Amino acid sequence: MAVRVTSTHLIGRAAELAELESALAAAAGGHPSIAFVAGESGVGKTRLLTELSERAREQGARTLCGDCVELGEGELPYGPLVAALRPLARDGDPVLAALPETARAELATLLPELGAPGPPVLGEDGSAQRRLFEGLLALLERLGRETPVLLALEDIHWADSSTRAFLAFVASAMSTERVLVLCTYRSDELHRRHPLRPLLAELERDPRARRIELFRLTRAELADQLEGILDAPPAAELVERLYGRSEGNPLFAEELLAAGGDGRGALPPTLRDALMVRTERLPENAQEVLRLLAVAQRADHALLADAGELDAQELRTALREAAAGHLIVAGADGLYRFRHALLREVVHDDLLPGEHAELHLALARALERRSTLGGDGVWVSAGMAHHYRSAGDQPAALRASVRAAAMASSVHAHGEAAALLERALELWDRVPDAEALAGGSHAEVLVRAAAAHRSNVDDQRRAELLRLALAELDEQREPRRVAEVLGELASAQWSLGRGEDSRATLRRALALLPRDEASAERAQLIARQVAFLMLQGRYGEVREAAEEALAIARSAGAQEICGPVLNRLGVALFALGDEEAGQAAFDEALDISRTEGQAIDAAFVTANLADALHRAGRSREGLAAAISAQADLPAGSRAARWLAMQRAEIEFGLGEWAAAEAHMPQRGHLTGTTLAYFNITSAGLLLGRGDTAAARPLLEETAPLLAQSLEPQYIAGCGALRAELERREGDLRAARAVVEETIDRIEFCSEDGERLAEVARAGVAIEADAAQRARDLGDAAAERDARLRADLMDMRVQAVAEDLDRAVTHAHAASARAEAARAEGGPDPAACAAAAEAWDALDRPYPAAVERWREAEAHLQGGDRTATVTAARAAAAGARALGSQWLLDEVEGLAARARLRLADPGAEAEAVPEEDEAFGLTPRERQVLSLLAGGATNREIGAQLFMAEKTASVHVSRILSKLDVRSRTEAAAVAHRHGLETAVLRES
Prior knowledge:
With 988 residues, this protein is mainly alpha-helical. 69% of the residues lie in helices and 4% in strands.
């Protein structure tokens, strides 16, 4: 049997190691990055990390290593980060002492050795978590000043939600820190709905991120591995046997060899069998310690001594034997853990049910004894809850879960807090005297769980829990508490797109408080009302409600409420055209937010300012504000994802489509209006590119999400895109129905004129298409109806432009006028050019390019081929710059049919030679086209032109090809549109 179980040197990972060393060298030069090492269990991720860590230390770098623990629900917050950083705190590293006091106070929530954490700061929970993350990044930056830093987090497939949030933050926030963050995970454990999947998809596409996939060893590499273990070349028979059994998995090969698989005896059939052979060879005391450690997952000496039944000498001996057998290792953090997670899983799975419960109970009680001494805070509490639950002690599990949830909330780990409180609620009816154990009523725990789900971005569950809580509360005895919970429910309902339900809930909440009362509770409820009115686009009412909310809040001394109210007031004033007053409201809101320490509120103010500027036609200013606001939000939070979409929306408007696509967040588990916004923004990009097939399912999913919404920003955005999709695919009836429904909904719930103009403008374009189609088919009644509807839609747009007098609405009006002229049958190139210029002035190249295409069509129909070339080249150049394939196809199709030359955009515009005019048709083909446009069949064409029916068919096929159309009907339409049939008559 081999004395050693691992090779003396790393096998088969030269390229991967070189890539990671290169990343570390780049980090040393001030170019931080994040790397992911993926692979199946036992493939060598930890071995590669160990080799990199050793080389990093030899080169003077500092290595910080932590591993994730599998607790089923991942409720141990920041586990790997604490494991990585705790040695610094315990050793009294001078870098910690040199940190600013604010950063030390934030880190103290994770590392109690640093002293008392800072006082709580008003604001949303995401702000507190971000301050913690900023403290962690400040520590990494300070450490990096001395030497480069390798922060290694192992097994992030088991990472808790707060650790995942930190990874999202650090990936986006690092700039010049001398840090390489390295994460390992089992790729074979990432099922379709694994919570790590969306994060990886988002992070791994960052140019600074890299993903390294480890594969199994080749036969030659396995031979090298065995030689490194045996200190001698292995026999060919042994290599073949082990390669066949292990299939190149290095851990399996090691364990097979260590278990006696040297070619002289039977080999265990599986890796788990091989691992069990190793453990069963140890003395009973050592096996008992392994069983306890398998349940604990990692533990210090004191915990093993307290929870186990061995005396001090027996425990020391057992630990030495397990370590000598290469089954466990002692980390720099003072914790024992298995050498490989698979070893722990094998031992754990071999436990009998009674052993499993007894060991969990022993560990839970040991941790509870430790907690009475104030040791390790949140992680001891989380461990207690886990072990009591696993032991089946339901009363203790409920009590510990509620306590652990409070501790998790104190370190801003809201996902873990939600999971722990849900567990307590599951146990409630099974436990006698649950209220005493939980330290609060069932309704109170429901409300606390709802608050955790709010921070964890799950409004559906949040609303469910709040409804359950309301069913248990008595509004006669505690009206203020009920009003507060109703306010939270109204907020959740609004986020889920249930606008009318939300407004009704809020009215019910306000009715529980005296109307003449100047209290913070009433001010908060009216502030919510202001927010809903703003989102609904009822801007005049926002002014009135905002004045009332501000007066009550100031009278009650609730200054922190004033900032959000002024924020919404700024949006309303901008929308009403009073940009100066709107800017003043935003500025005051920012001042209050900063004075009150409400970082999240300050970010939201800047975000709303960004949107207001964009809608006012000041998109460059809006984009700068959005980027500024994004920097102040916790990465991975609902707010950060929403703002990323807002940034992408502005970039799309500015024609920066590649940037917009790069900044769009991953879909993840979005719900309600947040999902609707994601789909609308994504669909807009797809339709811009021309991918209608991919846009359709997004829009079809979005429409039901908005069925009860009262927010015109989503209703209009979805409606305009759905209408454009149907129009572009030729279903004008469906497109018209979407426009009419969307306008009805906006007019019913809102006074948002700009959104109304956006949809009505789309309606004019649809009716222009309908009128043109009717003319092509000779349907005078249908043409008349389409022209009438186009006129009505155009009147809506012009009225909005007159009322609001804003650059964006005037651009909508210019486009609507051009489309209305097209509907009338006399396309006006000057109107199209004016619309293009209006959009160009706003730095909106996409609608400008569309208008240039329409201008080219109008010039062609008017017979000015030189002007047609100029407009078509401008449209084609715009489409190419944007990457709008559908628009480029339309322009090039127009050019091909009309025999226009667009190949050299830099050349002076010119008309094509006379003989190339009329789409390259020969005189005979023009005669055929004239008859075809009149509805003649091939036989009738042949009879009138004295040719065989087959010859007529050949002429028709050539005409379809030259006109770049697919049917006789389309050919007739082109002939009518460009006057070709009348030209033929003149020639005749």
